[in-house]
Amino acid sequence: MTESVIDIVSWMCLVAGGLFGIVGGIGVLRLPDFFTRLHGAGLTDTLCAALILLGLMLQAGLTLTTVKLILILVFLFFTSPTATHALAKAALHGKLKPVLAAKESKRSNI
Amino acid sequence: MFVAAGLTILVTMALALIRALLGPTVYDRILAVNMFGTKTVLLIAVFGFLTGRPDFLDIALAYTLINFIAIIAVLKFFEYGDLSRAGRSRAKRVRR
Question: Between chains, do A41 and B35 touch, taking CB under 8 Å as contact?
Fold first, then answer.
C-alpha cells in the first residue's frame, strides 16, 4: 500500500518536473529578449531539476543513491542562481539593454 | 515512467540547443549552454535509474561542478576579454 503511494507520488514529481522543463525550454526559445530568457532558464534550473531529483529520491529509498541525489540537488541549488547572476551581470557590463514597454521607455527618457 | 521523464528532458535539451544556435548575442548562447549542461546532469541521473544502475550518479555529480566552473570561466573571458586579469574592484585599487 505505502509502496504504491510512494510510486504514484514519485511519478507525479517526475512528470511535473518534465512539464516544467518543457515550459522553461519554450520560454527560452520564445521570449523576446535576453533578460526575459534568463527567467525561463531559471525555471528549468530550479523547479524542473528539484522535482525530477525528488522523484528519483522517492524511487531510490533510504540508500547511498539518495545521498548522492541530495548532493547533486544541493550543488545545483547553489550553482545555478550564481551562474544566472553572473550571466545577468556580464550582460549588463557588456552594454546589453533590456527591452522595455513603450510607456516605460518614455518615462526613462524623461 | 523514467522513459517519459528522459524524453521530456531530451525535448528541453533540443529547445535549448535551438536557442544556442539562433541566439542573437553571445550571452543567449551561454545561457542556452548552461541550461543544456544542467539538463545533461538530470538526463544522466534518469538514465542511471532507467538501466537499473544508479552508479552513473557520480558522473552526474562531477558534471554539475564542471559545468558551473566552465560557465563562470567562459563568462569571465567574455566580460574582461582575458582570463588572467583580476576583477574590476581590484583593478581600480591597483590604478590608485
Answer: yes
